[in-house]
Amino acid sequence: MDKKSEDFYRRLHEELAGSTTWPSEYLFKFIVPSDPEKIKEIEKAFDQMGAVIETTQSKTGKYTSVSINVTMKSAQAVVDKYIEMSTIEGIISL
After folding, report:
1. H helices of the chain, where?
2. CA triplet 22, 23, 27: central angle to 5 degrees?
3. Cα 89 from chain centroid?
4. How far apart are CA 45 and CA 41, in angstroms?
5. Is 91 helix (H, G, I), strand (E, B) or coil?
6. d(CA 63, CA 57)
7. pTM metric for this prediction
8. Which of 12, 59, 64, 86, by CA, is between 20 and 30 Å from 75?
9. What's the distance, CA 17 to chain centroid?
């Protein structure tokens, strides 16, 4: 992981830890190319977590927005999930 990513995740952790009482619901938002396999990969990462997952395809159909509402145990759990998701090719975290 590069320095810029490390700094981003450190700041995110600090912000979440300081502003939220854990466990808490958290809304993850991602944009991925409209590839069923990539969407399935995201859904699989949140399987067995009680997540509510909504997908919306862009007007052109080229991209899909994936919103995941799920209860997370801690700020670190949120950061760890973002890091896990960053391995999916073409994913953009919002």
Report:
1. 3-19, 36-45, 75-85
2. 100
3. 13
4. 6
5. coil
6. 6
7. 0.91
8. 64
9. 17
Q: What is d(CA 83, CA 66) in angstroms, rounded to the nearest whole number?
A: 16
**Can you tell me the distance from the alpha carbon of 74 to that of 21, in angstroms, rounded to the nearest whole number?**
8
Q: The tokens of 76 are what? A: 């670190």
What SS3 state is found at 54?
A: strand
Tokens representing 26? 């958290």
CA–CA gap between residue 20 and residue 79 (Å, rounded)? 14
Tokens at 11, concatenated: 């700041």
CA–CA distance, 11 with 17 (Å, rounded to integer): 10
- Residue 43's identity, in one-letter code, is E
Angle subtended at Cα 82 by Cα 79 and Cα 88, rounded to the nearest 5 degrees: 155
pLDDT in tens, 37-55: 999 999 999 999 999 999 9
User: Which amino acid makes up residue 88?
Assistant: I
